[in-house]
């Protein structure tokens, strides 16, 4: 131990120094022995890191008044809190909305039916959902491709075979894949909710081409997706009144889950992390007091030499 | 304190056993407590709360 200490710190820590100097924490730092070039390099790295952090913070705080779109107001989602899980009943309703409304144009190619198990559906229900689709599979023993009903391991079907087909069917606009859309859009689920409920007649002076609709939350204002959510456009199996805002809220919650499937685990883990780190903080504080107690309670007594 | 030191911490063998045993109980305590907190805060929202309706 002493040899290792000496290798890293020289003799500084091992030599007995006058008690006054020992009380100064700078003598416990090894930075004094660094070469001047090293100090400059480390100083520069620190300054650059701090500067980049401050720049990012300033950019994030900026007003963002350059575009003409309206910024989505923050809604009081009940999964917004630090420890708040997603409302799984809402996720289940949101899946109904996606399946019956959104999936007509939007794919969700990274979500499989097995992902629904234990989140919004039981295994039997998820199997039943999967069996409603047909999947092209193969080749079989004779080398032919065939279609079969879907299995739990199948991903959600895409409405169009490829992006070109999707553009051709939608006036050249590509309906984005919705798997990670909440993470992919500024404003997240607030944006999704505002977009779905924010359709208006175009104000005077705004020119829309054919197949375009006015939505103040969409960058540019002209969106190629028509309003799809109206009151009672579908019926919920659990009897919740399917108002427009309820539909938008449920599908935004569902999309939040598909974008962040680890959402609940993450927040559960945060509680554990707070517990363990809190415990370690208490221990560190105790050990610090313990180790410094002899240094801090030391008294220097001057005893004159007797002649 | 002295009893704890003499019976557990003095010998490396008993010290190691004490560390492993206390790690087990610490982990269980943290895990069970934080899961209980999470389930209490989110009562009614989790899948296990609504799954009975669909089985």
From TrEMBL, chain A:
Gene3D superfamilies: Cytochrome c-like domain, Cytochrome c1, transmembrane anchor, C-terminal
Alphabetical list of InterPro entries matching this protein: Cyt_c-like_dom (IPR009056), Cyt_c-like_dom_sf (IPR036909), Cyt_c1 (IPR002326), Cyt_c1_TM_anchor_C (IPR021157)
Keywords from the named record: Electron transport, Heme, Iron, Membrane, Metal-binding, Mitochondrion, Mitochondrion inner membrane, Respiratory chain, Transmembrane, Transmembrane helix, Transport
One Gene Ontology biological process: mitochondrial electron transport, ubiquinol to cytochrome c
MF terms (GO), sorted A to Z: electron transfer activity; heme binding; metal ion binding
Location(s) in or outside the cell: Mitochondrion inner membrane
Official protein name in the record: Cytochrome c1, heme protein, mitochondrial
Automatic annotation (TrEMBL), chain B:
UniProt KW keywords: Electron transport, Membrane, Mitochondrion, Mitochondrion inner membrane, Respiratory chain, Transmembrane, Transmembrane helix, Transport
Keyword Transmembrane helix among UniProt keywords: yes
Gene3D superfamilies named among the record's database cross-references: Cytochrome b-c1 complex subunit 9
Membrane topology: Single-pass membrane protein
Keyword Nucleotide-binding carried by entry: no
GO CC, alphabetical: mitochondrial inner membrane; respiratory chain complex III
Residue spans crossing the bilayer: 12-30
Subcellular localization: Mitochondrion inner membrane
GO term, biological process aspect, one: mitochondrial electron transport, ubiquinol to cytochrome c
Quaternary structure annotation from Swiss-Prot or TrEMBL: Component of the ubiquinol-cytochrome c oxidoreductase (cytochrome b-c1 complex, complex III, CIII), a multisubunit enzyme composed of 3 respiratory subunits cytochrome b, cytochrome c1 and Rieske protein, 2 core protein subunits, and additional low-molecular weight protein subunits.
Similarity section: Belongs to the UQCR10/QCR9 family.
Function: Component of the ubiquinol-cytochrome c oxidoreductase, a multisubunit transmembrane complex that is part of the mitochondrial electron transport chain which drives oxidative phosphorylation. The complex plays an important role in the uptake of multiple carbon sources present in different host niches.
Protein name, UniProt field: Complex III subunit 9
Organism listed in the record: Drosophila rhopaloa
High-level lineage: Eukaryota, Metazoa, Ecdysozoa, Arthropoda, Hexapoda
Gene: LOC108049463
